[in-house]
Amino acid sequence: QYLKRPTYSTLKTLKLTSRSFPHLHPQTLNLTTTSKPLFTNHNHSTKMMEEEIEKLRGVVRDCVSKHLYSSAIFFADKVAAFTSDPADIYMQAQALFLGRHYRRAFHLLNASQIVLRDLRFRYLAAKCLEELKEWDQCLQMLGEANEDEHGNFRDAKDSDVMYMDKDTEDREINISSAICFLRGKAYEALENRSQARKWYTAAIRADPLCYEALECLIENHMLTCDEEKSLLSSLQFAPEDGWLSSFYSCLIKKYDKAVVVEEKFNKLENEDISTKPSNESMICTLKNNTDLLACKAEYYHQCGEYQKCFELTSLLLEKDPFHLKSTIVHIAAAMELGHSNELYLMACNLVKDYPQKAISWFAVGCYYYCIKKYDQSRRYFSKATSLDGTFAPGWIGFGNAYAAKEEGDQAMSGYRTAARLFPGCHLPTLYIGMEYMRTHSFKLADQFFMQANAICPSDPLVYNELGVVAYNMKEYTKAVWWFEKTLLHIPSPLSEMWESTVVNLAHALRKLKRYSEAIIYYEKALALSTRSLSTYAGLAYTYHLQDNYTDAITYYHKALWINPDDQFCTEMLTLALVDESRQGCDLFKHSSEDRGLI
């Protein structure tokens, strides 16, 4: 009996109102016993019905904006039932997706034949499969793509966006770009990183507004320095997106000369609004933007200006305590400065707020590393990498924790994993070279340092390590060349971080018997740090070699004041005193002979 169509008389007893069927006008529901027909004006009723349906679509959009997804699903389902319009079916699938009903949304889209002809339907169906972690089916749904002679990709299935949303924006991200990005995510989940890099690159090239693709390329270190610059130069920005091009240039690796990097930041921060068109007036607001200031803090950290970096990230985290990019830079700066209390507080807050994020346990590992409890730090670095295998700092910290205990094999294992996962990051390769150098395998160390230099040819730390290898191999001329090249790549003025490079250069010059130049660089090193034993010892020894025993004795004493148990300085001070006394005797003898006393 429930399958029978109700007659006119049974409808009359139901007492329907407009609230029961909001898509119908109240006049059409006035079912009384009159002799008038039910719909007196068909065209007028159809128009009113369309207006009511449009109002329901507005209700769905409003429910979505207020995150009332169950309500959105309910009304979207009714709209799709009333109209069978593909756009309304898409809206229903969107509501199901936002409500996390991924299986149902996929079934709805897949049941419609439109999914084979419309990119939006296919993309949303693939997004459902992404949430379900069914990566192979996701790639199958997205289909194949063809590459043209310029390296751009086009969907192999000749489909267009046939049914647009009812509330499309004036400016949208290219649907092809979104599809390329989703392909990249699927390949990355399947650990096919070369394909993931290709599709992320295709996504950002298809539409420079697809920031997520660039973020994945940068955060996962998929490109080298030169590849990042080449990619940015190939992007075709709209005339009104000049600010975006400048911003992207601040996001990539910042190993250029200080003047170049500072100019990039100043271009975004100090834009003169009065000389620019009205559509670029927004640029002046980026001066206090958190993302931009986080990039600047990252640059300070790379330059070795850790205190400056720490102060900036502290201000940023007061303004936005949950800005994770600022948080990771803040942790790194606190590590370098030895602020264990700050690391402890950061770790506690992160574990409380983000227990499932790798950065939280990385912060715990950094705290234990800072207080020299390397076994505990290694355990938490390992936990960070288990939560997120693409978290580069976790792998490097894992290797460093083993290296601090001189457990070279385990450290190398961590570094090799990081080098494999992050081909655009030179640090794992650099640390592998350092481990080989620690075991006096200088040839192998040199090979890995050259590989690191190929990945990032503008990092001064790589040149310093190449100089150290050359020095240990007794190639002092080559060592001087590498150290001088290091200083050329360091942003001026020099910070205390680079004091060791200046001392290394002075040592190499002393080995070449260029004593005057060596003394100049030793004195420069003392201007950067007055607590370095090797600087005082090297300077004293250089004066000693010049037979300047008085200055040599002075600096040996200063070195022993820092470390009274230093064997080299103790022995050389004794020799310097003997040499000075002999020199005094010889001078007295010659003076007496000249005066005829002997």
UniProtKB/TrEMBL annotation:
Taxonomy, superkingdom: Eukaryota
Keywords for the protein's UniProt record, in alphabetical order: Cell cycle, Cell division, Mitosis, Repeat, TPR repeat, Ubl conjugation pathway
Renumbered ranges of TPR repeats: 358-391, 499-532, 533-566
GO terms under cellular component: anaphase-promoting complex; cytoplasm
InterPro entries: TPR-like_helical_dom_sf, TPR_rpt
GO term, biological process aspect, one: positive regulation of mitotic metaphase/anaphase transition
Protein name in UniProt: Anaphase-promoting complex subunit 6
